[in-house]
Design brief:
With 356 residues, the protein is an alpha/beta fold. The chain has 13 helices and ten strands. It is 43% helix and 14% strand. The radius of gyration is 25 Å and the shape is globular. The mean pLDDT is 90.
Length: 356
């Protein structure tokens, strides 16, 4: 005779240890996370192969080079004559060009454009209020005394002079209008005014209908919708940053991936059928302070020789043929202070180009 087996009643079932439920839930969650990571690695390193024959450029800021205590002209010429960049993104800060209202100083930018032209180097010229480098927006002090339409007209007048001065330069390739214009969380800027950037876009097209206008997307998320529609779109790519905005402070891997950039680019292209490039590819540290105050070990936590190679691979696997490197002032600063390793690592990446 088989032994009698009594099925547990509902009350007995409820008395089963609660920790078993949590173990099951955590196992499922862990399995999902592991699956997502495995899929991400498979897509990043197997499915999405790097594009061939990349084209690399560099961003350069006179003000940033000066902050490092460098001879900025030597820094600039080293990019042209030693590393032999063929494409540069330059700035035209309002605060530098019109430090006193009605008095304009184009000497530094004239020199940069002339040196580029002599070497056949092409320039993407940043224009407008918001341009690369902290504090992002670069108004002169006197502009703070203006408001409303008077302020806008002063901004437009400065932009008109910049464009009409350089539109016939053989070095000029394109304009970059209002860097990351809708990025409201980073920089010392007033809230973005879409109507103003539409007006700026139309004015630039009026002043120079020949050269294309590129606009960088705001951070690494979102899809551009609404006006204006530029001639091309620029992406920003960072990987390791020092987080001070969400959760505990410390280094974090930026939560975007190769497949994410490819998906985002595909959606944008489907909507607009416009070309895209990486306007800002992280090639300098993002640490807990200014780089010139950080030790080499601290700098290496977010950018190192090894990480430089990973960044170019990431951009190429993301499907972008052209990328402008970020951090040319830092590379040179390390070089003149006795550590050429970063400078040489950049040179090694440039050798990937077909006609370097």
């Amino acid at each position: 005779m088989l032994p009698k087996y009594n099925m547990p009643g509902k009350k007995e079932l409820k008395k089963q240890p609660k920790h078993k439920k949590w173990v099951k839930i955590l196992s499922i969650v862990g399995g999902v996370i592991a699956g997502v990571i495995a899929l991400d690695l498979f897509l990043n390193h197997v499915v999405f192969q790097p594009v061939s024959n990349p084209v690399y450029g560099a961003s350069f800021s006179v003000d940033q080079s000066r902050l490092y205590g460098l001879d900025w002209k030597a820094n600039y010429l080293a990019l042209l004559d030693d590393l032999k960049f063929k494409h540069l993104r330059l700035t035209s800060y309002w605060s530098d060009i019109e430090p006193v209202r009605g008095q304009f100083d184009f000497a530094d930018l004239d020199w940069q454009m002339d040196q580029a032209a002599k070497r056949g180097v092409k320039v993407s010229l940043s224009i407008g209020l918001r341009q690369p480098r902290w504090p992002e927006c670069h108004p002169p002090t006197w502009a703070g005394q203006l408001s409303g339409n008077a302020w806008k007209q002063a901004l437009y007048a400065y932009m008109e002079l910049v464009i009409k001065r350089y539109k016939d330069s053989p070095a000029l390739d394109s304009y970059q209008l209002e860097n990351e214009f809708l990025n409201n969380w980073f920089g010392i800027c007033d809230p973005a005014d879409r109507q103003r950037v539409i007006e700026e876009f139309n004015l630039v097209k009026q002043w120079d209908p020949k050269h294309p206008i590129e606009m960088t997307l705001s951070d690494e998320h979102g899809i551009p919708l609404g006006q204006p529609t530029p001639d091309s779109f620029g992406f920003t790519m960072y990987r390791i940053v020092y987080n001070t905005n969400f959760g505990p402070r410390g280094y974090a891997l930026y939560p975007t991936s190769v497949w994410w950039h490819r998906l985002r680019a595909a959606i944008i292209y489907t909507i607009y059928h416009k070309p895209m490039a990486v306007d800002e590819l992280q090639m300098e540290p993002w640490g807990p302070g200014d780089n010139w105050y950080l030790s080499t070990d601290e700098q290496n936590k977010s950018m190192s020789v090894e990480q430089i190679g990973k960044m170019t691979d990431f951009a190429r696997r993301s499907g972008f043929q052209r990328a402008d490197f970020w951090g040319s002032e830092w590379w040179y600063w390390r070089k003149v202070n006795g550590d050429p390793s970063i400078w040489e690592a950049i040179r090694d990446q440039l050798k990937q180009q077909k006609d370097y």
